[in-house]
Specification:
Number of helices: 10
Mean pLDDT: 83
Strand content: 5-15%
Shape: flat
Order of helices and strands: HEEEEEEHEEHHHHHHHH
Helix content: 40-55%
Distance between the termini: 41 Å
Radius of gyration: 21 Å
CATH class of the largest domain: Mainly Alpha
CATH architecture of the largest domain: Up-down Bundle
Structural class: alpha/beta
Strand order of the largest sheet: 1-5-7-8
Oligomer: single chain
Number of strands: 8
Largest sheet: 4 strands, mixed
CATH superfamily of the largest domain: CRISPR-associated endonuclease Cas1, C-terminal domain
């Protein structure tokens, strides 16, 4: 039998201390599940989602956001459920969430991998249509690309063409690599990546590759949740996830490279530990602490919905992986 409480038999409302709680409707007033962010994303891990008497429930073994227990989830107030490792669900959960427009996305720890998603965007197509119009109109597409470069370069170049902006960005990034390598005291001999043998690269390049994968996975979450069109990029053009890559690159200076060079330095101090594991763990911690997925969602809304270009993120210190 499924219990409404924990081992003590007391109601969940009495067992779990409130921290950003979601108060549900339809008799779910006692549910206390942390609403992690302002965009309605609920991150779950190490437990089972199931349906009991028409109520979505989560039986959790406990993780960083949630103490062990059996929780009622007021899915009517949740935009999307983000399922991290150790989470399982029944077919009834898919049926219930689909019927109420609640998205489901399966990811790696901390959102560092993107595995699959059920419909996770808004229930109307306005943003997707705006995205398509921006992309289809040549002048609007160029203007949006310039806005993206303005975020990355920290300066607006209203009349520069894309080739010039790409050249400026390439030169700037070479200096950024050198500067961050010196800052984190990591040897740097240039950006090198062999797709056929990625492990042949030095520690810094391997770390960059792993962290890029993690940040791109977070961008995939943001694109899915906002209802944007992943294939319609403004700077990237050919890949099926071009817009996701556009968003990923907006965070290269402020997230990807600081995390990667920190991971490379950690790997130098701990040569017996796998560089991918160090990079992924540090990326997950940084993505969480800096709430990168929320900033990405805001960026996407700014770019597509026509607000003023947002300012670049400040380069906050990357937390230690320990």
């Amino acid at each position: 039998m499924i219990s409404d409480g924990g081992e003590s038999g007391a109601p969940i409302a009495q067992q779990v201390q409130s921290k950003g709680e979601l108060r549900g409707r339809l008799g779910l007033e006692s549910a206390r599940v942390p609403q992690r962010d302002r965009h309605g994303l609920l991150w779950l891990a190490r437990g089972q989602l199931y349906v009991s008497d028409g109520t979505l429930r989560f039986r959790c073994a406990g993780f960083i956001d949630l103490e062990p227990g059996d929780y009622a989830i007021p899915y009517q107030l949740v935009t999307c459920l983000i399922l991290q490792p150790g989470t399982s669900l029944t077919h009834d959960v898919l049926r219930l969430c689909a019927s109420h427009g609640t998205g489901i996305i399966a990811v790696g720890e901390g959102g560092t991998r993107f595995f699959a998603s059920a419909p996770a965007g808004p229930n109307e197509s306005a943003r997707a249509r705006r995205h398509a119009r921006l992309w289809a109109d040549e002048s609007a597409r160029l203007a949006t690309a310039r806005r993206m470069y303005a975020i990355r370069l920290g300066e607006v170049f209203p009349r520069a063409d894309i080739a010039v902006l790409r050249g400026m960005e390439g030169a700037r990034m070479k200096e950024t690599y050198k500067r961050l390598a010196a800052q984190y005291q990591v040897a740097w001999r240039g950006r090198r990546y062999d797709r056929d043998n990625p492990e042949a690269a030095d520690l810094a390049n391997q770390a960059i590759n792993h962290v890029v994968t993690a940040v791109e996975a977070t961008a995939m979450i943001a694109v899915a949740v906002t209802g944007a069109i992943a294939a319609l990029g403004f700077i990237h053009e050919d890949p099926a996830r071009s817009f996701t890559l556009d968003i990923t690159d907006l965070f290269r200076d402020t997230v990807t490279l600081p995390v990667a060079f920190t991971a490379a330095k950690e790997a130098e101090r701990r040569p017996d530990e796998n560089i991918e594991r160090i990079a992924r763990r540090l990326a997950a911690k940084t993505l969480r602490q800096k709430k990168v997925v929320l900033t990405m969602i805001d960026r996407i809304k700014d770019l597509i919905d026509g607000n003023d270009p947002p300012k670049r993120d400040s380069e906050d210190e990357v937390p230690s992986c320990r």
